[in-house]
Amino acid sequence: MLQWIAAAWLSGLFVGAQWQPIAGPILAGVALVGALAVALHGHELGSRLWAAPLSCLAFCCGLGVAHAAPTPCSVRGEGRLTARVESVRHGVGDARLRLQVLEGRMLESGRALSAGLPITARVEGFGTPPPGSIIAFQAELRPRTELHNPSPHPDLSLPRGGGCWARWSERAPFEVVEVSRWSAAVDLARARVRTHMNAELPQEVAGVARALVLGDGGALGYTQRQTIAAVGLAHLFAVSGLHVALVSGTLVRSLHWLLRGCALGFDPRRLAAAVGIPLTLLHALFAGGSPSAWRAAITAALAWGLVVIGRRPSATSVTAAAALILSAPDPAMALRPAFLLSIVATSAILSAPPTSRSQRWRRLRGSATISARTLIATTPMVWWWFGGVPVVGWLTNILVLPLGSLVVIPMAHLFALTASIPAAVEPIGTALTIAVHILLSVCDAFAPLAVTRRLPPLDVAQGLVVLAGCLLLLIARRWRQRLAALAVSTLLWLGADRALVLREQPQDILRVSFVDVGQGDATLVDFPDGQFAVIDTGQGGRHPAVRELRELLAARRRSEIDLLVITHGHPDHYGGLLDLVDEVVIREIWLNGQLLTEERDAKMASLIASAMARGTRVRFAPELCGRSPPFGGARIEVLWPCPRYDPALSLNDNSIALRLVFGRRSFMLTGDLEGDAERRLVA
After folding, report:
1. Which of 83, 182, 544, 670 could staple 657 via S-S, CB 3.0–4.6 A?
2. Domain assignments of the chain as residue spans, ordered by start
3. What are the pLDDT digits (tens) for 245-271?
């Protein structure tokens, strides 16, 4: 029954986060009244019948939880503030801090900062404050880049964004004002192990070891993380339920073995379980305290607690109880992808049908079944949030997971202990290096098979089809039922995708969409006959505009651009071209030609050469001026710079100005034209 209540509570939280019901307090009140009624009259129901009303009440409670939007950042400039350290994420040579303002004031205006304002800052090196500590610092604050674009693929996560970026203004970036001895001790131990691994292991091996022991996922290189995720092994290289279960189980079994020969008058099994509870929770804290790590640690602690009192733990009930314990005080944690994926994967494993002991290759069949069920159960969330499904992960988990769980993870933890045993550093470090290289080589070998790492973004209808299909695959017991469910789901998905294309690629109308890319411009134009144009591409590199534009094109099923116009040569207008050249087919590009002539680093020339090598036609202002040819069922006219760009003008004033005309409607797009060029244009 507990598992149904937990599932209803989490479902209510998830639905409520998307719906944000105004009647949240009313729903919570109804749930409390209903709970009281069940408590008073529950004896009239059989114990099994309690599940239905209690699950409904749990759903209402989850639905009634109000999820506050992040506090926006409305300041820019130098500030002096005091903040609490919420989390620290270590990378290769730096760390990212998430802070919450306690008090602060802007230096120039004297404006007070809102208490609770989220702050994100980056610290070079490894001298970071412990989580939970209070620090004082002076920094330059600026708002975070937040982009909001309507899409067929809505964002189903909690409201994100808000808060400020902070750049330290002093050589000594912060001063620790207050920190508990416990937090300082744990942080010091983590720092010692981190320094030991960086000093004694090759960089690649140290990154893997830090990810496995300390939860420093950022210590892995970007390309390495992409490869690992593509082959479906991301859970192996992050502190998850697997790691906590291995460490906790090893600790308790070792204690049981040591205590078994001692005549202490206690049951050694219960005593070992009792000692294992605080050790398990301490390990989760030492390993970085991720949501999945805490979920697994609390699950293990509950299981050991039941052993202590002489009860046999039920895996499903203990997992459900852990989910409730974690999410009740902090509902936002329950909506993080890592937490939900952990819960769903665990549920799929626990609900797997038992393998007959008489079957040949029983262990291999069991591993294959668990790997398949985990992949199927997590597919809807992985596809929705991460844009692909690592189908090859079914095979890599069967082949690689034993090496990772039985060799690499234990050896990484043993190497962490060598920080206090110098004599063991060389043999254990050498063995760990060999094992990690084998593991990474296998990942690289399977990477070319990861053809489903990028899939089309789902709309709501397709998401529901995928969810229903995966549930049917998990429930079905016969191959005929599974094949039927897969076939029906595929047909429904294709039908929904066709409807999406008809809706997002309209005919007989001119649709102009101005994309929010922060600083810069990007405009999408759907022409009446179905042709498609993009005018400017926003910023490139690591700016979120790149991902925003790419995902919007994929959500609209636009894999070809008939016309791409780069109005002028500033990176916030052409920076995204690098990604578009590799992602979509571009038929034609229009340029004013100034940047190709005047740029110093030849970056634009390289991009255009790359596009031309793929068959893209490039046209310049002299060829385009004075003509108004029909295009896509409408008219498109270049108004400026004509007859060619003026070298005496700036890049902005040489922006291509276009006029789109369809029937009685017209649009004028002017890039970044400034006053002088605008006056000459209308003269």
Report:
1. 670
2. 2-64, 77-179, 183-232+389-456, 240-333, 460-504, 511-682
3. 888 888 888 888 888 766 566 788 888
